[in-house]
Write a structure and sequence with these properties.
The complex is a heterodimer of chains A (203) and B (189). Chain A is of the alpha+beta class and 203 residues long. Chain A has 4 helices and 12 strands. Chain A is 33% helix and 34% strand. In chain A, helix 3 runs antiparallel to helix 4. Chain A starts with a strand and ends in a 10-residue tail after the last strand. Chain B is 33% helix and 31% strand. Classes of the chains: A alpha+beta (203), B alpha+beta (189). The interface between A and B is medium-sized, with 16 and 13 residues. Chain B: It is found in: Cytoplasm; Nucleus. Chain B: InterPro entries: Ntn_hydrolases_N, Proteasome_beta_3, Proteasome_bsu_CS, Proteasome_sua/b, Proteasome_suB-type. Chain B: Keywords: Cytoplasm, Nucleus, Proteasome.
Chain lengths: 203, 189
């Protein structure tokens, strides 16, 4: 029931993920951050097996940082996407990761880009991507309303439309979502869309 | 559903008069859901050699990277491009290496050999070559493609006519297959 989706706008890309950590019928927490910042200008939203998700995204993040340290320049989004695909492909016939990834990034001179990376290491550069049961609703919504070079306001409006669809039409719809954005100024958290707040922990 | 039908694909290659054409559909799907409508299945190895990879998209991408690597190495050592017949044998060998854990791909190879003689061939996922003089097909729409090509093909077509024929054969076949379609890419050399 994990939902991850993303789209490319004018000089930015946005990735949205649900934030429930679920084990069978139990919801452990509803504010889990599933979108990792790979570096200053890259976002990796992941869905799938929780252990694999956390471990694999961290692994990619550290390797992206390592490249930066060794070579003095950061990886481009395309290079990071291909690296990720390579790791998934190598592991596929040994010890596969069950993680679906939406990778968004902004490169100087190239602009924003979005990559769809399947758990079996299918890589494709796209304008809009979605995984999970939520994809049936968010992809349909995006097919209808998306157009090239949307402004941030228009894109967030579309994101909200998708979230409303998921909440109203998916039987085990996740209550909370996190929205992160990446543009020339970097990758950052944009907003949360919460309909259920975790009880504050007792001090 | 078979693993070969997971992503959906349609590939066809035809021989003309001192030319060849290779065409593919553009759909990338995950079973019933369409993910993208601009997926590339045909890759250039060198100016006179193209390879199309039908079947599982991830294996097609991995196999393509291995083939480009091997061809670049060949170019460095031999200081020339590979002949299509040689390339076909290379692909066959690479596929058979994984006999008991195969790549789920069906390649279609099309190229111009010595004196610009067109060469096409296809193989199954473990490298059994199938050479043909007229056309070869692969992918989820292969049965429709066989029918369409058999009826539309004529020997020794000029490039323009070959382009029309292969396009019509591809489009009419993928229209009968839900897993492939959304347009086509055609290369005529």
């Amino acid at each position: 029931m994990e939902c991850v989706f993303g789209m490319v706008g004018k000089e930015f890309a946005v990735v949205v993920a649900d934030s429930s950590a679920v084990h069978s019928i139990l919801v452990h927490k509803s504010n889990e951050d599933k979108i990792m910042l790979l570096d200053s200008h890259k976002l990796m939203g992941a869905s799938g097996e929780p252990g694999d998700r956390a471990q694999f995204t961290e692994y990619v993040q550290k390797n992206v940082a390592l490249y930066h340290f060794r070579n003095g320049i950061p990886l481009t989004t395309a290079a990071a996407a291909n690296f990720t695909r390579g790791e998934l492909a190598t592991a596929l016939r040994k010890n596969p990761y069950s993680v679906n990834i939406v990778l968004a990034g902004y490169d100087k001179g190239i602009g924003p880009s979005l990559y769809y990376i399947d758990y079996i290491a299918t890589l494709h550069k796209v304008d809009k991507a979605a995984f999970g049961y939520g994809s049936y609703f968010s992809l349909a919504m995006m097919d209808r309303h998306y157009h090239k070079d949307m402004s941030v306001e228009e894109a967030i409006e579309l994101v909200d439309k998708c979230i409303i669809e998921i909440r109203s039409r998916l039987v085990v719809a996740p209550p909370n979502f996190v929205i992160k954005i990446v543009d020339k100024d970097g990758a950052r958290e944009y907003a949360w869309r919460e309909s259920v707040k975790d009880a504050p922990s007792v001090a | 559903m078979s693993i070969f039908e997971y992503n959906g694909s349609a590939l066809v290659a035809m021989v003309g008069k001192n030319c060849f054409a290779i065409a593919s559909d553009r759909r990338l799907g995950v079973q019933l859901q369409t993910v993208a409508t601009d997926f590339q299945r045909i890759f250039k190895i060198h100016d006179k050699l193209f390879v199309g990879l039908a079947g599982l998209a991830t294996d097609a991408q991995t196999l393509y990277q291995r083939l480009v690597f091997r061809h670049k190495l060949y170019q460095l050592r031999e200081e020339r491009d590979m002949k299509p017949e040689t390339f076909a044998s290379l692909v066959s060998a690479i596929l058979y290496e994984k006999r008991f854990g195969p790549y789920f791909c069906q390649p279609v190879i099309a190229g111009l050999g010595d004196e610009d003689k067109p060469f096409i061939c296809t193989m199954d996922s473990i490298g059994a070559k199938e050479l043909a003089k007229d056309f070869v097909v692969a992918g989820t729409a292969s049965e429709s493609l066989y029918g369409a090509c058999e009826s539309m093909f004529k020997p020794d077509m000029e490039p323009e006519e070959l382009f029309e024929t292969i396009s019509q054969a591809l489009l009419s076949s993928v229209d009968r297959d839900c897993l492939s379609g959304w347009g086509g890419h055609v290369y005529v050399v």
